[in-house]
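Reviewers asked in the last cycle whether our approach scales beyond single polypeptides. To address this, we selected a multi-component target totalling 586 residues and predicted its structure end to end. The input consisted of the following lines:
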Amino acid sequence: MSNALLKLREQSRLFSTTEREIAMHILENPQLVVDMSIHELAKHTFSSASSIVRLCNHTGYSGYKEFRKAVTHELAMREQSKRTEQKEITRSDSLQDIIDKISYANIVSLEETRELMDAAVLRTCVDLIKNARMIYLFGLGASLCAARDAYLKFLRLNKLCVINDDWHSQILQARNAGTQDVGIVISYSGATVEMVECMKIMRENNTPIIAITRCENSPVSELADHLLYTTSRESIFRSGATSSRISQLCIIDILYTALANEDYEASLEQLSRTHIRKPGQISGKMYKGSSQF
Amino acid sequence: MSNALLKLREQSRLFSTTEREIAMHILENPQLVVDMSIHELAKHTFSSASSIVRLCNHTGYSGYKEFRKAVTHELAMREQSKRTEQKEITRSDSLQDIIDKISYANIVSLEETRELMDAAVLRTCVDLIKNARMIYLFGLGASLCAARDAYLKFLRLNKLCVINDDWHSQILQARNAGTQDVGIVISYSGATVEMVECMKIMRENNTPIIAITRCENSPVSELADHLLYTTSRESIFRSGATSSRISQLCIIDILYTALANEDYEASLEQLSRTHIRKPGQISGKMYKGSSQF
DNA sequence: GCATTTTATGAAACATTGTTTCATATACCT
DNA sequence: AGGTATATGAAACAATGTTTCATAAAATGC
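The resulting structure, written as structure tokens, was:
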């Protein structure tokens, strides 16, 4: 609906030379359309008002007025999502600035994660996990937190999972994985030597490997059979792998939800069964609301 | 800048009766301004074009044209953030639908977290943590993952932290906390009995308590001295406390960044010191890029 | 309480801006 | 070369926004 500028770019083959010229000018600075009258714009693009109207018609609008309405709308929307520019934290930032910048950085990271996600790859991953005898989870540091989160989620779906905290146990764990199983490796950098080691072992056993890592060439992405990408941007103060960690969790959410949705009724039933009863609780009725922890 | 409708509401005392009447109509359905010409709108509001122009002038615009531009802009912005409506996952959803819905749910949750965050409360919390002798972290289930994440972050800033996985250890941990320390309790529901128990113990010792919990009346929010709120919306398939968990992590990010920013140089130095050296690594040069895990 | 000033209001004149028409120029085809 | 199709901008036209102004109503002064 509101893709006037996109249409302007895409449908340029329908335009005459003059129209194309006008379109170029507009695409270069769309704000002109909002600020100028049709005659002004005609002058500015060395053409005529009628040519502009014809351009609008070819782009799918009844006239300049309608076109302008669409462009105004579009620019406003674009402005709204202009927070996309990564803003560094500076020394002079107020607490409110920090709140805004960090929140937006995380939001952008989620938007990027969404764009990086390939439904076909997800399909394969969901099937692999669904049919796996056992899910082997791997991660270290902040990525271990994400792996633990995945562990909790898969447990809720009655999937068999293994996770270990330290590297030595993870190596042993990797040795046990077989063809019928699936390994899920979470690594922000894609270079963690411990993870690479575990993956090599699993490859020897022909265990299919899903990696959740950043979208770049790295040992981890080379060793994995299926890749789910996290954002790769991190700012100076967040070298503790911050945005990527939220990105990882979102991917896990998506995997979990997709899995759960594959067998709707069965999941619902299973979910209610795994709702933990608190000590002293009779029948599942808890303090207002039903969630836990 | 773009608050035409707000001004219309606020400055109504400056208006005459006719103008107020027009303003009411516009506020009731602002889209009218975008769709109608000034004469049409005059007819629709049983007034005249000149009255509308006068209204625009009183609202701070040079005329109807400028006013309409502002309203169009404002409505577009408003529409952009309308994705706020929580969309449930349905059985017929494609994988792409799931990707979009989950991502957006998480984004909305971050937006809400930002809105719920009070800079004054954050100020107090940052000061408490900065001056604390020891930080005691508490959480269970998914909230324990968030607590572990906080632990990793605070460690990087050379803050003394304690965290324990099981409830019994957490109780012991709570007993050790004193006036000079700070307790950080993470609980999605705000009702987890184990957390409540820990908080009661800390209250006895007059340990200041920061709680990261959902914005509702709950035992946890009553027992805490300082509250940082997470989103409270969860959908059916996400009873594993999903969005709130991302919300929790964002709050931790903000706390961490704010803390780090308080002493810029010191943090930078500290950060580079805590960059872990990998086995076999000579001087910190790693595979392309500098991050870990 | 009446006269005067101020304020409020809409019709109409006016100015601006968008749309359509049409004559002309150019390219293309036969 | 002649004819047709297409492209283009000037100008007429239509619509839409702005200003003026006469009138009516309210407020103020005496």
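The CA atoms of residues 15 and 55 of chain A lie 7 Å apart. We regard this as preliminary and will revisit it once experimental data from Aim 1 are available.
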